[in-house]
């Protein structure tokens, strides 16, 4: 069994989840792997209790425990590539070296520009009550999306081969974009200027794997999806 350590919590405005752990959840779902969630209190990300740093030296999520192997693997990209190497179906990274590099390049862009860049200023305030949110910080994140990241995604989509995804069929490059779809479902940033991205994010939300990270699917409901009881 694979145990995914993450942070998820239900709020009146939607169920919020760790963005990086959501990347791993999507890959577990896409590969139809059985897994169990270990839901850590959000405060652990700041407190970093020893039981957490014993598994991840930086006290971050996600990390996964692979029970059969008796090992823990941390970092969403490393976990996802491990899952790809170990469970090759359905393939999320192409075998051709150049195409593989292109897919990884976009995944890396999304990690740095979105998950480590403009999404946290938008997403983190939703973990607090509306009156405690730093509105100007949220707006800065949105402006970063509008001026840098969304134009690039719009261009990637304009150049994409047919199939509906960034590289034709769904790949590792689309995985962090599922997280963008998740954040913008709560934030409802208008996307009129980015029509291809708007349609693409809607398509991502229709994938069965999105149910596991959808803000409309509560923690308990999502946990029942692929978890054996
Ligand atoms: N490169 C790591 C980043 C993980 C990360 O930053 N996770 C956030 C939650 S979404 C976290 O644990 N934040 C607490 C911290 O930065 O100390 C990955 O891809 O897994």
Features:
2 domains; binds glutathione; 50% helix; 229 residues; Glutathione S-transferase Yfyf (Class Pi), Chain A, domain 2
Task: Describe this structure in a few short sentences.
This protein is α+β, with helices and mostly antiparallel strands and 229 residues long.
Structure description:
By secondary structure, the chain is of the alpha+beta class. The chain has two domains: 2-91 and 211-226, Glutaredoxin (3-Layer(aba) Sandwich); 97-208, Glutathione S-transferase Yfyf (Class Pi), Chain A, domain 2, CATH 1.20.1050.10. It is built from ten helices and six strands. It has a four-stranded mixed sheet, covered by helices on one side. β2 (8-11) and β3 (14-17) form a beta hairpin. The two termini are 12 Å apart. The relative contact order is 0.17. The model has no long low-confidence stretch (mean pLDDT 96). The structure holds glutathione. Glutathione (GSH) binds next to α1 and α4.
Largest sheet entry: 4 strands, mixed
In CATH, the topology of the largest domain is named: Glutathione S-transferase Yfyf (Class Pi), Chain A, domain 2
Mind telling me the C-alpha Rg?
A: 17 Å
| CATH class category name of the largest domain | Mainly Alpha
Helicity range: 40-55%
Number-wise, the strands total 6
Outline the secondary-structure elements:
Layout: E1 2-6, E2 8-11, E3 14-17, H1 19-30, E4 35-39, H2 44-47, H3 50-53, E5 63-66, E6 71-74, H4 76-86, H5 97-118, H6 120-123, H7 135-159, H8 175-187, H9 195-206, H10 219-226
Parallel strand pairs: 1-4
Antiparallel strand pairs: 1-5, 2-3, 5-6
Glutathione is lined by residues 18-20, 45, 59-62, 75-77.
């Amino acid at each position: 069994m694979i145990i995914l350590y993450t942070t998820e919590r239900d709020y009146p405005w939607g169920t919020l989840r760790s963005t990086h752990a959501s990347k791993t959840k999507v890959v577990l779902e896409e590969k139809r792997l059985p897994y169990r969630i270990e839901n850590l209190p959000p405060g652990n990300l700041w407190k970093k209790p020893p039981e957490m740093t014993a598994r991840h030296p930086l006290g971050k999520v996600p990390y996964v425990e692979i029970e059969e192997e008796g090992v823990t693997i941390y970092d969403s990209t490393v976990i996802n590539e491990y899952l790809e190497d170990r469970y090759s179906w359905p393939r999320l990274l192409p075998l051709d070296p150049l195409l593989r590099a292109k897919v990884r390049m976009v995944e890396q862009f999304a990690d740095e520009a979105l998950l480590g860049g403009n999404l946290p200023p938008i997403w983190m305030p939703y973990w607090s009550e509306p009156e405690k949110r730093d509105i100007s910080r949220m707006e800065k994140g949105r402006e970063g999306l509008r001026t840098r990241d969304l134009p690039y995604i719009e261009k990637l989509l304009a150049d994409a081969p047919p199939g509906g995804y960034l590289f034709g069929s769904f790949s590792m490059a689309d995985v962090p974009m599922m997280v963008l779809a998740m954040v913008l479902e709560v934030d409802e940033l208008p996307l009129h200027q980015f029509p291809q991205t708007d349609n693409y994010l809607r398509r991502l939300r229709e994938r069965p794997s999105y149910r596991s990270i959808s803000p409309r699917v509560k923690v308990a409901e999502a946990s029942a999806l692929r978890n054996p009881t």
